[in-house]
Amino acid sequence: MGQRIHFVVDPQGWCCMGLIIFIWLYNTIFIPKVILFPHYEEGNISVVAVLCYYFCSLFCIASLFRASVADPGKLPENPKIPITEREYWELCNKCNMMRPKRSHHCSRCGHCVRRMDHHCPWINNCVGEDNHWLFLQLCFYTQILSSYTLILDFCHYYYFLPLKKENWDVFVFRHELALLRISAFMGLIILGGISRLFYTQLMGIFTDTTSIEKMSNCCEDISRPRKPWQQTFSEVFGTRWKILWFIPFRRRQPLRVPYHFANHV
Asked: GO terms for molecular function, please (predicted)?
């Protein structure tokens, strides 16, 4: 479960994801070229700072690609319903298929997704039971990378010693100020948007409520925790080992919990 490749044919999603990849490439290429490598060569920063930036960049792009191609929890055409859980299944009025409660039909993808949170155009995929953990990692590492980039932009002008050697014949140094201003602008926009989204996602896990459930029950009390936060996070990430919650390269093994919950809608 959760290991199948899922590819959504959506030009709008491709454009959104292409923009995210462009921003990632821009900062991954120009920040080391303009800031990290020159200051490392002159002894202003250590190799640890360079490696940390590349590790954050690697984890960010890995979680992006995995979240975009991972199966979010698409239901098969003829699902096998356990006899003991039949009362917790329902009929979808859009695709006329049986689905476990807390599943929802994605009109953009054209199928039902188990415990669907929302459809995200920035990863061109639904966020559901099987890839929610990757989406959370993407939000987390994007915040880390954006914050790191903004700190480097600030330190380059206001903290680090001026560079002694600069090759002004190279494009990146002749347009250094413009490149770093663009980097800082993109970093601020991404950090602001992702921080709000990440906070919303965390609150949803703490309360064991998806974004769709929040919108459909806006007048009900959905802020009361139904489960311990360790349990809800373990179910999302598929493991109780907290250190593994931060690793995007592993294979998720979902915890054996029933489809129904105390707060199903």
From this structure: protein-cysteine S-palmitoyltransferase activity
Question: Angle at CA 155, nearest 5°, toward 199 and 45?
Answer: 105
Q: Whose CA is closest to 150, among 180, 176, 195?
A: 180
Give the residue-averaged pLDDT of 56-72: 94
**Residues identified as active-site:** 120
Strand 111-113, strand 118-120: pairing: unpaired
- 254 or 103: which leads in pLDDT: 103
> What tokens appear for 33 in the block?
């070229």
Q: How far is CA 37 from CA 102, 146, 158, in A?
A: 50, 18, 18
Beta-carbon neighbour count of residue 81 at 10 Å?
Answer: 14
Q: Which long-range contacts (CB under 8 A, 24 or more apart) does 214-222 make?
A: 216/265, 217/265, 222/263
- H or E segment and range at residue 149: helix 132-158
Q: For residue 72, give Cα distances in angstroms to 103, 106, 132.
A: 11, 11, 7
- Alpha-carbon dihedral of residues 65, 119, 205, 226, nearest 10 degrees? -150
Of the candidates 160, 202, 184, 217, the one whose C-alpha atom is nearest the C-alpha of residue 42 is 160
